[in-house]
Amino acid sequence: MKALITGASSGIGKSIAIYLNELGYELILASSDELKLKAVAESIGSDVKYLVADLRNTKEIYDLYEQTKDEKIDILINDAGFGLFGDFVKTDLNRELEMIDVNIKAVHILTKLYLQDFVKRDSGYILNVASSAGFMAGPHLDTYYATKNYVLKLTLGIYEELRRSKSKVKISALCPGPVDTNFNKVARGYFKIKGADKDYVAKYAIDKMLKGQLIIIPTLKMKLTILFYRFVPTKLLLRITYEIQRRKSEK
What we know:
Elements: E1 2-6, H1 11-22, E2 26-31, H2 34-44, E3 49-52, H3 58-68, E4 75-78, H4 93-121, E5 125-129, H5 142-164, E6 170-174, H6 183-187, H7 198-210, E7 215-216, H8 220-229, H9 234-248
Helix pairs in contact: 1-7, 3-4, 4-5
C-alpha cells in the first residue's frame, strides 16, 4: 500500500506521513521545501521517496502526477495550503493568488487525476485537508476561508457521485479548528488559545478516513462550535468571526 502526501514537510502533513508509515504504508512525500522534506523523509527512517513540487506552479502540479501516476497510489492526501491574515483591501493580491493556486487549484487537479485512476481500479482513498473555516465566511482571513469552502464543497459533491455509482473509492474532508502548526507564522497571525496537537489530528483523520467517514472534525470543541454556528444569524456570525480573526492578527 502506498500514499502520496502533499505539504508533508511540516505540520499535519508531516504527522500524517509518520502515522501512515507506522501503519505500514510506503510513502511519497511532496513539498516545495526540499531541505525540510529531505529531513522528514530521513527521520521516518524507512524507504521514503520525496519529490520537490511548488504547487503554486500549474506545471509542477501536473509534473507531480506524471512522476507518481505509475506508483499505484492507494491514498492521496491533499494537505498543502496556507493562509493570510488582514483586511481584504490591504492584503497582498499576488500572495492571495498563490494561496488560491495551492489551496484550490492543486487540490482540484490532483483530486481529479487520481480520482480517475482510483475509479478505474475501484479502490483508493482521498483525504482533502479543508478546515472548520470551510463551514463559514472569514472576515480578516477572507481568501483562506473561501478556499477551504471550495475544498469542502468539492469533496462533498464528489462523495455523492461516488456513492451513487456504488464506487468503492472513498473521499473525505478533514475539517479541524486551530492546530499547533506553522500556520500562524506563515499567515502572519497568532492564536491566544492553544491549537490541537497535530499528531492527534493526523491519527484521528487517517483512522476516520480508512473507515470511510466523509467529514472529519477531530475535537469535540470544534464539533460543538460548528453546530452552534448553524443557529446563529449570518450577520451576527460575521461579526463574531471578524472579532475572532482580528485578535489573531499580528500586533
